[in-house]
Amino acid sequence: MFDIKSYTEANTLKELFEILDNNHDARIVSGGTDILIKNRDRDQNFIGKDLVGVTRIPELHGIHLDAEETLCIGAASSFTNVSNNELTKQLAATLAYAVSTVGGPQTRNAGTIGGNVCNGATSGDSGATLFAYNAILEVQNSRETKNIPIQEFYLGPGKVNLNQGDVLVKIKIKKKTTISLMVTILNLLKEKRWILPI
Q1: How far is residue 49 CA from its own chain's centroid?
Q2: Could you say which DSSP state residue 123 is in?
Q3: 70-109: pLDDT as tens digits
Q4: Strand ranges (DSSP E) for the chain?
Q5: Less Cβ crowding at N or C end of the chain, within 10 Å?
Q6: By CB neighbour count within 10 A (0-12 exposed, 13-18 middle, 19+ buried), where does 193 fall?
Q7: Which burial class, exposed, middle or buried, applies to 14 when counting CB atoms under 10 A from its CB (0-12, 13-18, 19+)?
Q8: CA distance 137 to 114
């Protein structure tokens, strides 16, 4: 049913970078909820490819506040982890809610926020919310670390600002952004204006 050339699991970012630098045909797979559908549907970019799993890489997991009180969400965090995490619920409640509505429980348990963002789908459940929070995407490769504003990440339907060897490591939301968004929503509610979904 699936036309996959090979599957490898990377255990560290260094190992992942080495694989990607040596195999320009390799595709990263995290939850697999999108890439397997593309393979099944015979999307030429995903047929007969070497897949590299990233779910074992510690740096891609976890949700925490950094020294600057920026909310950092590991790209391989599942929708379930993001929606149930206390920090996310406290500082990015709209995001926690948005990802809690993705598909069914199986999809939320397997699908990852990073995979959803990197898929570049205009219907992606996390993308619009991350735009509202002015999220910054930390992208790394074997040579550098880049911090890309989400507004510069999406290049069009299904197209994102990732070069060969680039890996989305974490999504960052500044605490002041979460507070200003909450104040805006509360003001709209006080004024009894309708809030329409994006």
Answers
A1: 21
A2: T
A3: 999 999 999 999 999 999 999 999 899 999 998 888 889 8
A4: 4-9, 27-29, 49-53, 63-65, 70-74, 136-140, 145-149, 154-156, 159-160, 167-174
A5: N
A6: exposed
A7: exposed
A8: 9
